[in-house]
Write a structure and sequence with these properties.
Layout: H1 30-44, H2 47-54, E1 69-70, E2 74-75, E3 81-84, H3 95-112, E4 134-137, E5 142-146, E6 152-157, E7 160-161, H4 164-172, E8 183-186, H5 192-207, H6 214-230, H7 233-240, H8 242-245, H9 252-261, E9 265-269, H10 274-285, E10 301-304, E11 318-321, E12 330-333, E13 342-345, H11 348-355, E14 362-366, H12 369-379, E15 383-387, H13 391-400, H14 402-436, H15 443-485, E16 494-495, E17 498-499, H16 501-509, E18 512-514, E19 528-529, H17 537-540
Helix pairs in contact: 3-5, 3-6, 5-6, 12-16, 14-15
């Protein structure tokens, strides 16, 4: 039998010579490591190499807002086929103009076809009162912003902030499940007007004393705005004056050409129909580079009306289209995908079979967190890049507030230290008071303890006042920074000190994210995009294990096992 451990023996672990928890504390091949350390010293002290690595390179003046940001390491040398969505990805819309058009057309349908009070026709669109990543509570008629844990940080009813006690009762004292059907998520740019409509109509009708069925109102708005997109009435308006609604990026053609020059094949995979796709792509790319007489020459495969996210999970066949006709008449079912032809529909399995490319050799670039990024990640091993048009605004704003954010960070650290200090002084004070309760103290000892208690009480009062002051300062500065970006919802990627739900989804499911496709122009087609290493709190606190490598890995995407 094993010897009995004495009752007062220390628990194995930590600095003890014989740890219990599996650490070996000795390299299996120390000679190899010592040799590598010598070679590392030679490499790191090579003067010629040092001069080369520290010399500024051409293109390093690229604005940070135009960077490609990395959540998961990606070797572009391993990518053979790169696909692009069109709307809000290759085609960057003038959001205020397009949102206003969608808002007006949807409002007209609500009055004309759904019988809503004509007074709502006077509502004005407020582009500030919209942001991606918000949730609509269809039961209570509220609009919410959540952090990555589902905690509701901000809530509005109509155009008024929800009272704190109501917010606590609805969303803090009860478990909020983001997957609950009562919540509708605003995750796309084209859906922004519906959130503004929902809030505006509730505010107006309730101010007139009308009772609002919140769920029915949301469903009607959703159906009306879908109809505006589905019947092509909105896109017909856009086509009448494309330059008014879509920016023409002069770097887009060059970026696509650079990828092709790196021996990448490119494909277009869009939900838009052929006629609209052709009109937009001609506007974006025709005439940009003399090597490409038509936009279609940039792409090896063109798939329209793809029906994403169903494309990634359903089994719709590919249909070949007559690209010489504007309406794109169906020629027949496709048995192969060929360069120079145009298709509609299709599915992921056949796409990989027909193109001969699969899995991690394919990178797909899109803007829709669910339809483009999350669903493709759930259904395949495709690598993903999300285009977040708003990224440039947020980076430009936070850069302009650099000093304020640094001051806020400093005061928050000070607040945490003061909070810890309050607890430490209270613990010491309690110990002194327990000693003073004893009858065995001599007069001198009691006088000493009384003096110590007086000193600790003074220190406690000082630190408590400082903590209260620091808390007030931090709250004011945080509110100022957040509301400076958006007075209703704060920063897009943050909710308080946590990532917002939208920011969390981008981090979990997109291997890369950037503000526009042309940002790839600033990188080699063979670029190794490296992510920062994940660190747990005990590593971030200064542990040397957190310094083992500053770079991440090529492991599975963070959200690959999550629904």
């Amino acid at each position: 039998m094993a010897p009995t451990v004495p009752a007062n023996a220390p628990i194995p672990g930590g600095p003890l010579p014989d740890p219990l928890h599996g650490s070996f504390r000795s390299s299996l091949n120390r000679a190899h490591a010592e040799n590598a350390a010598r070679r590392a010293h030679e490499l790191l002290t090579d003067e010629a190499l040092g001069r080369l690595l520290t010399a500024p390179r051409e293109g390093e003046d690229t604005p940070r807002a135009r960077d490609v940001f990395v959540n998961r390491n990606l070797r572009m040398s391993s990518v053979e086929l790169i696909g692009f969505d069109m709307d809000y990805t290759l085609a960057i819309y003038h959001m205020r103009r397009l949102e206003q058009l969608s808002f007006d057309m949807t409002l007209a349908k609500l009055v004309g076809q759904y019988g809503y009070n004509p007074v709502i026709g006077h509502l004005l669109y407020d582009h500030h009162f919209v942001m991606r990543g918000l949730a609509v509570d269809r039961v209570h008629g509220n609009i919410l912003k959540m952090d990555r844990f589902g905690h509701v940080g901000r809530a509005w009813h109509g155009l008024r902030p929800l009272k704190p006690e109501v917010r606590r009762e609805l969303y803090r004292n009860k478990l909020v499940r983001p997957k609950d059907p009562r919540f509708a998520w605003n995750d796309t740019l084209f859906a922004l007007p519906e959130t503004c409509l929902y809030a505006g109509i509730i505010e107006l009708l309730e101010s007139l004393g009308e009772r609002v069925d919140y769920g029915r109102l949301y469903d009607n708005i959703r159906e009306a705005i879908d109809t505006v997109h589905r019947d092509n009435s909105l896109k017909r308006e856009v086509r009448k004056d494309i330059s008014r609604y879509i920016f023409q990026d002069p770097e887009l053609g060059h970026a696509l050409h650079k990828l092709r020059s790196g021996h990448k094949k490119l494909f277009l995979l869009t939900n838009s129909a052929w006629d609209y796709t052709d009109a937009v792509m001609r506007y974006l790319l025709d005439g940009q580079l003399p090597e490409y007489t038509s936009w279609r020459n940039y792409f090896d495969f063109v798939v329209t009306a793809a029906g994403k996210p169903g494309f990634f999970s359903d089994q719709r066949p590919f249909l070949e289209l007559d690209s010489t006709s504007e309406e794109g008449r169906v020629v027949g079912q496709a048995k192969i995908l060929e360069r120079g032809k145009v298709y509609s529909g299709g599915n992921l399995a056949q796409f990989e079979e027909f193109t001969g490319h699969r899995g991690e050799n394919i990178l797909y670039v899109g803007d829709h967190i669910y339809g483009d990024i999350l669903k493709s990640k759930k259904s395949s091993l495709w690598r993903t890049c999300m285009v977040v048009q708003e990224l440039e605004d947020e980076i430009a704003y936070t850069d302009s507030r650099r000093e304020d954010i640094a001051r806020l960070s400093e005061i928050e650290i000070t607040r945490a230290r003061l909070d810890d200090e309050v607890n430490a002084i209270k613990t010491a004070l309690n110990a002194v008071e327990r000693r003073l309760e004893r009858d065995t103290l001599s007069a001198a000892e009691r006088a000493h303890e009384e003096e110590e208690r007086k000193k600790l009480k003074g220190e406690l009062d000082l630190v408590r006042r400082a903590l209260k002051e620091a808390t007030g300062i931090a709250d004011t500065l945080e509110q100022d920074v957040e509301e400076g970006f958006n007075p209703y919802w704060g920063l897009l990627f943050k909710e308080g000190n946590e990532n917002s739900r939208f920011g969390y989804q981008v981090e979990q499911y997109a291997c890369l994210y950037t503000s526009r496709v042309s940002n790839f122009l600033h990188y080699s087609p063979m670029q190794y995009h490296r992510s920062p290493r994940d660190q747990m709190p005990h590593e971030q606190a200064g542990a040397l294990s957190g310094k083992l490598s500053p770079l991440g890995s090529e492991g599975p995407p963070k959200g690959s096992s999550k629904e």
